[in-house]
Amino acid sequence: MEYALLQKADFSLKIGRSDQWMDINYELDRDHIDVIPGEMSVLYSTITQEDGRDVHIKSKLLRENVLIGDFGYYTNDFCRLLFGNPDPIVSMTNFSMKEVFSRVIKKISTEYGEDIGIQALQQNLKTGVVVCTDEENLRREKKYFADILADANESVFMEAMDNLKIAVNYFRGYRYFIIAGGTGEAWFDQISKYLSKLNDLYVIPSNTSDKTIPLMYSVARGNYYYRYMKDQQ
Fold it and tell me: What is the DSSP string of 175-222?
């Protein structure tokens, strides 16, 4: 990635319907580029307040055995952080939000006979309704799919957690579990409940330092504060 960013950029672009082209030319200096693992970005976002100061929990996170989970649309990525040193554990591609949507689409097709794509489903999520067409009788009918969505979400979530607990030896030795990502935000309460009987494991959101920032932006926010703190040294 660093090699690609160091290449000189020389291109033109046109925005919208404008007939005017804009020439873009720039070349980045190596000192202006930093590439860090996404899970470390999550850590930096978690331990840094809006004003750049450390949160009170920073020293604990850097001294303990920490699990970082970045639950995304395509993948769920997990990393062990032991005394501040990252160690990737597993990346899951079969138990993400994309898989939830895929199961919803399949169930709608099976039960209602309506075939829709993921992009269309994302629009349907706003209303909770899918419009189904009876091709033989030329009739349309609205179908609510909240129950289908809830069942698909619960089944994928449980499969994800069942696989994760094996990958991390049933959370033995972990003190903190940092949750990041858009799917992490959707699943946060479920994750907390799932692990609630492990009373020595603390599940915390990656936006604990700034609740106004959604979990899906933790990596981007962490990248910014990593560079910010580096420049302050």
Answer: -EEEEESHHHHHHHHHHHHHTTT-TT-EEEETTTT-TTS-GGGHHHHH
